[in-house]
Fold this protein.
Amino acid sequence: MTSPERPARGRPRGFDREAALEAALAEFWRHGYEATSVAALTKAMGINPPSLYASFGDKRRLFTEAVERYAETHGDYGARALAQPTARGTVETMLRLAAERYADAGHPPGCLVIDGATNTTEASHEVKEQLRGYRERTKHAIAEKIEVDVRAGILPSGTDAAALAMFYAAVLQGMSTQARDGASRSDLERTVEVALTAWPA
């Protein structure tokens, strides 16, 4: 009588991959890329290291997948805002949705794309650049919307689109930091109201 065949060493056991990815996303969001260890990830995900490597590749690739998931779910406010017909609508929608999302008690505070790689060593340079790329694309998209409205006469001809886009990007980044420091949604919404007064008349 032969013994039953055993699974190959390191083969991932059955687990909910989507739930594991959400758990990894929360860990990266809460602690940042570099401060999140593989041991912390596997504990949060409910899997062992061989399963993580077999299913997600490695910590770096897992982070990329987590950021993509974030952009599609918790961080989709940027894409939703950019779908607005005017630059003013885009900026206001982005700020108001950010105030709601950043202070939502159902997940870590702030924004993963803003805070996920604030303190990294040279070894994590690619991660820092990846997140910077997300932020830069959003900022440039806002600037392009502003330029369109300037050409259409909706905004004054002397409006500095790049500077205005950078200003509101800075407001978003500051709101994320404030949320991580404990600011409530109402606190952030008041910040939005003040920030909108800077919009060109």
Residues 1-12 have pLDDT under 50 and may be disordered. Residues 75-200 form a domain with the Tetracycline Repressor; domain 2 fold (CATH 1.10.357.10). The chain has ten helices and no strands.
